[in-house]
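Reminder to self: tokens first, then the designed residues, so the page reads top to bottom the way the pipeline ran.
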């Protein structure tokens, strides 16, 4: 799968521009605040229907515009059909190849129709081949792996970051996972509201029964799929630099028995205390004596960064294995965060050199503010901002 071109209109600081991409390595070069990350954000938006940095989606609309538009043209080199998902047993394959378009239209709830007149409009519209789609059907048509400086904190920071990572990986390749996580999150909010009313108003706990069943059903699926990804990453062989890493899945199982076990504590806290919203993954590495250690507590900064790179490569291989598509690899100014050794690994991976001669990443789009880093690439398309 290749992103052939990207058209942006009033997206953040980019008023109007079309970007054409090569099928392999693309490097976007420009000074800080020139919009490099915004380009990757727009591609991620086409991939997931969401931003990786905006707290409010309206932030992505240029400050003096009422509407922003992001459009991407895709080309599939294999026999994959847009819109299909996959599972561990059997990737979904179509019998024909085709190029497709994805589009996201953002508004502030109304659009300027001229003459100081405004018309109400949906805040976000998602389109596949010019046909409006729900988020659950839009996400995953363009598959991406995003690697940015903020990912360096995956090992050490909040479990919420690691759960968000798992959700992003699995949502790209599994429509049922997308549906389950949306249903679970909505049900969780409703159940927590009921817990508050039970505590404050003395309502009966029997009113939780419907939400308990909904969370258990969706939570079981979410946990099972997260465990499948963790198992896949632990068994994957990428290269000698990554052989010592593994993930431990710290699962918060949800069941009628566990909900009953924490019944009084949940009412007191007005919060659901068990379930995949409490899951975590722990990064571990083997010592020379094969004993495992927690990298968040006993890992050097270099080891932690290498573990994150291993996780991103595992994500790439998992998405390719499930879907049959090579995801688009997006690297946002990470060279400034890596030392020479780690930068060389990236160059070797992208150039299929050294230990990674047989590892094929496919299309990649990289941003940097420092053009002396790009000397590590044998061949690439340069895009200047």
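Designed residues (385 positions):
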């Amino acid at each position: 799968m290749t992103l052939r071109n990207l058209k942006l209109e009033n997206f953040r600081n980019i008023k109007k521009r079309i970007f054409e991409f090569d099928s392999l390595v693309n490097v976007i070069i420009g000074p800080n605040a020139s919009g490099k990350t915004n380009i990757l954000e727009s591609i991620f938006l086409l991939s997931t229907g969401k931003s990786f940095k905006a707290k409010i989606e309206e932030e992505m609309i240029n400050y003096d515009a009422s509407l922003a538009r992001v459009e991407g043209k895709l080309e599939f080199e294999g026999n994959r059909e847009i819109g299909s998902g996959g599972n561990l047993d059997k990737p979904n394959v179509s019998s024909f190849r085709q190029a497709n378009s994805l589009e996201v239209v953002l508004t502030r709830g109304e659009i300027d129709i001229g003459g100081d007149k405004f018309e109400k409009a949906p805040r976000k519209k998602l389109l596949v081949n010019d046909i409006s789609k729900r988020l659950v059907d839009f996400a995953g048509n363009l598959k991406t792996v995003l690697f940015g400086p903020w990912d360096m904190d995956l090992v050490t920071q909040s479990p919420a970051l690691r759960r968000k990572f798992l959700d992003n990986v699995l949502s790209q390749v599994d429509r049922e996972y997308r549906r389950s996580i949306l249903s679970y999150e909505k049900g969780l909010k409703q159940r927590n509201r009921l817990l508050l009313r039970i505590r404050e108003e003395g309502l009966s706990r029997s009113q939780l029964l419907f939400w308990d069943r909904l969370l258990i059903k969706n939570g079981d699926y979410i946990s099972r799929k997260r465990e499948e990804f963790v198992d896949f990453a632990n068994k994957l062989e990428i290269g000698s630099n990554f052989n010592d890493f593994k993930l431990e899945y710290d699962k918060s199982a949800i069941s009628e028995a566990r909900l009953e076990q924490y019944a009084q504590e949940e009412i007191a806290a007005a919060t659901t205390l068990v379930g995949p919203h409490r899951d975590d993954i722990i990064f571990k590495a083997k010592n020379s004596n094969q004993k495992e250690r927690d990298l968040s507590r006993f890992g050097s900064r270099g080891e932690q960064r290498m573990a994150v790179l291993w996780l991103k490569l595992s994500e790439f291989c998992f998405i390719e294995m499930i879907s049959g598509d090579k995801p688009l690899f997006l690297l946002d100014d990470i060279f400034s965060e890596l030392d020479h050794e780690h930068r060389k690994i990236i160059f070797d991976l992208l150039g299929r050199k050294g230990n990674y001669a047989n590892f094929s990443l496919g299309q990649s789009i990289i941003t940097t503010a420092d053009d002396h880093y790009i000397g590590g690439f044998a061949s690439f398309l340069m895009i200047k901002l």
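The first strand starts at residue 2 and ends at 11.
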